[in-house]
Design brief:
There is one protein chain. It is built from 18 helices and no strands. It is an all-alpha fold. The protein folds into three domains: about 1-50, no CATH class; about 60-245, no CATH class; about 250-410, no CATH class. α3 (about 25-35) packs across α4, α10 packs antiparallel against α18 (about 380-410) and α15 (about 285-305) packs antiparallel against α18. The protein is globular and about 70 Å long. It starts with a helix and ends with a helix. Keywords: Membrane, Transmembrane, Transmembrane helix.
């Protein structure tokens, strides 16, 4: 989209048409280009138009509201299928938790981006393949491959959502980075909606208790579950129609938590040396260690997505660079621990999955760290870091497909 804006900067009609195809993406691309276009009459007009901060919340069009309401109801009905069709809840939710919200979000972006019939058919077929595959896996309660498949299926569905969000192959690296930013904004906005919903739930239940009516079961079974399913959809809708709502919160969170996590990791690594915990022999500790690694890596990626618009923020870049180095050390410890366990106790589905994931994360972190170092030396722009992350994302999709669809057969459904 950047190339189109630059090429047609003096064509107001074309810019207006481009803006209406994807308003949030247009705004992001234009704001990144504006320092170079400043002084151009049309560019200055668009800067005022796009960055005017209205105090009112934009509720979008009536069609968008209807779509979100219907999608929320459908997601809620999917979540209630075990009660409606007498399906075992453990069986259903373990395998189908990702299908409650992800298809609705994917449909929203497919509709908003006006994807072609071929792309919509591809999305539908990929989602249907996931539904059929995961629900026809043998119901072995002690199966590690089943659990791994269910976990990585969520990543697979997230990749389909990314495909729907990106829409086309023009400026794909910017759109993938925009998807990471969207995920961060989604967590923030969904969390705020969840807090508000929790307060409303507590007030409602206790008000009815005051008059002697117990509505807890009914409320949680119907209103609560529909509300939980609707929260990510409503959050997405608000992010797309009112980017200013989280446009200032997300960068603050990224800037605030990056240095705090850096300090925490350094202290944590030192504490490990003086503690009795050993990731080489303690399985649970190794699992928590890996969960910590994934969380920190997500924070780095989210921070890069937010910082990519601020090319002169050298302090934040240095913090991200140091955080990446410390995270590589954490990954190195986890990686060596899983290799140690494989050498001593053999290959299992869990160890193979963790080994592959750690290897992919380590390579990604090394690539990102190199680009961050170059950025600190002013050899490249911070956008180069974002492009490195964006180009690498399909590798995670390939790994998710392997673990989800190949591991059960590779390890005999064990």
């Amino acid at each position: 989209m950047k190339d189109q804006i630059v090429t047609h900067i003096n064509d107001p009609k074309y810019l207006e048409k481009l803006y209406r195809t994807n308003k949030s993406q247009f705004k992001q691309a234009f704001n990144e280009l504006y320092p170079e276009l400043k002084g151009n009459t049309v560019a200055d007009f668009w800067d005022e138009r796009l960055n005017y901060e209205s105090e009112a919340v934009n509720w979008g069009t009536g069609k968008e509201l209807v779509f979100v309401i219907i999608a929320s109801l459908v997601a809620g009905l999917i979540a209630k299928l075990p009660a409606l069709l007498s399906i075992n809840e453990d069986f259903f939710y373990q395998r189908n938790i990702g299908f409650i919200v992800f298809p609705a979000l994917t449909a929203y972006f497919a509709w908003k981006n006006k994807l072609s019939t071929g792309k919509i058919a591809f999305i539908a077929c990929a989602t249907l393949a996931g539904v059929i595959f995961i629900n026809y896996l043998p119901n072995v309660k002690t199966s590690d491959t089943l659990i791994l498949s269910c976990i990585h299926l969520v990543l697979f569905l997230g990749s389909i959502l990314c495909f729907s969000f990106v829409g086309d192959y023009k400026n794909i690296e910017d759109k993938r980075l925009g998807f990471l930013k969207y995920l961060g904004d989604l967590v923030v906005m969904t969390g705020l909606i969840g807090i508000a919903g929790g307060i409303m739930t507590a007030l409602t239940i206790n008000l009815f208790l005051l008059i002697g009516i117990h509505i807890e079961k009914f409320y949680f079974d119907y209103i609560g579950i529909f509300g939980l399913c609707a929260a990510p959809l409503v959050a997405t809708y608000l992010i797309q129609t009112n980017p200013q709502l989280v446009g200032k919160i997300s960068p603050v969170i990224a800037k605030l938590f990056s240095p705090l996590v850096l300090v925490m990791l350094v202290v944590y690594l030192v504490a490990i040396i003086y503690s009795a915990k050993n990731p080489y022999n303690d399985r649970e500790f190794l699992l928590i260690f890996n969960a910590l690694l994934v969380g920190v890596m997500a924070l780095i990626f989210f921070s890069v997505a937010e910082t990519s618009k601020e090319t002169k923020n050298s302090t934040q870049i240095w913090i991200l660079f140091l955080l990446s180095i410390v995270t590589i050390i954490v990954n190195g410890v986890a990686f060596s621990a899983i290799i140690f366990r494989i050498i001593n106790w053999g290959v299992t589905p869990n160890r193979a999955a963790v080994l592959g994931s750690n290897a992919l994360i380590l390579i990604n972190l090394l690539l990102v760290t190199v680009q961050l170092f170059k950025t600190t030396q002013r050899k490249v722009n911070i956008s180069a870091v974002g492009k490195t992350i964006a180009y690498y994302l399909p590798i995670y999709l390939i790994w998710a497909i392997i673990v989800t669809f190949v591991f059960p057969f590779l390890f005999g459904f064990k």
